[in-house]
Design goal:
With 230 residues, the protein is an alpha/beta fold. 44% of the residues lie in helices and 12% in strands.
């Protein structure tokens, strides 16, 4: 039975990276160049990218997510002894603008729009990064808003980021369903007051953080059904 907190939803808001778009895709498309370093690079790049957002927020030293992404890649390339390959670095960065959407995403968004729900992205990503990813995946007509923290100059999980979705969509927090594959982001959004569905793509254990998550799913294909539109 569907949780009653998901019965009166007016808007579905999605994290972008790791939730709609596969952050490992850039490294995967360079598997011939990276060899056995493909998976280590993908993991380390993502870990440093996230940790730099949190640390910069605490330091009050915001830069665009694109700069954070480059800094995290440069660190990772040094760790793996690949920092001398400028062509590989550029190839990886170019591919980050064309990340693959997960296979279920387009059909899922189509179903939500057909049901009359507002849809939006709420992301740390820079506006140009997000627009490129949305365009590459052909999702532009399926989203009402693509919201970037660049408007606030602070990264998730600061509460002002989640408030931006309330303000821009004109939907109260209690009627917003928020999806993220990042457990820390799911916790932050739940702590803010969203009804959160954690997209636990990699079967990870729950974080020990504030925030009451409604439920978790393994991918986004089942989301319309959870909201009563399956």
């Amino acid at each position: 039975m569907t949780d009653p907190r998901l019965q009166d939803i007016g808007a579905c808001v999605f994290d972008a990276y790791g939730t709609l778009f596969d952050v490992a895709a850039a490294a995967a498309h360079c598997k011939d160049d990276l060899g056995e370093n493909m998976q280590p690079l993908a993991v380390l790049w993502r870990d440093k990218q996230l940790s730099y957002t949190w640390l910069r927020s605490l330091m009050d030293e915001y830069v665009e997510f694109w700069q954070v992404t480059q800094d995290a890649l440069d660190y990772s390339l040094v760790v793996l002894g690949l920092d001398g390959d400028a062509a590989l670095r550029q190839k990886l960065l170019d591919l980050y603008f064309e990340l693959d959407a997960y296979p279920e995403v387009k059909a899922m968004l189509t179903g939500l729009k057909a049901a009359g729900l507002k849809t939006a992205i709420l992301s740390n990503g820079s506006p140009d990064m997000l627009q490129a990813a949305v365009s590459n995946a052909g999702l532009g007509d399926l989203l009402d808003e693509v919201l970037s923290v660049s408007d606030l100059s602070i990264f998730k999980p600061h509460s002002s980021v989640y408030q931006m979705a309330v303000d821009r969509l004109s939907v109260p927090a209690g009627r917003i369903c928020f999806m993220s594959s990042n457990a820390w982001d799911a916790s932050g959004a739940a702590n803010f007051g969203f009804n959160v569905v954690w997209v636990n793509r990699f079967n990870q254990p729950p974080e020990r953080l504030p925030g009451d998550i409604v439920t978790q799913i393994s991918d986004l294909s089942t989301l319309p059904g959870l909201l009563g539109h399956g």
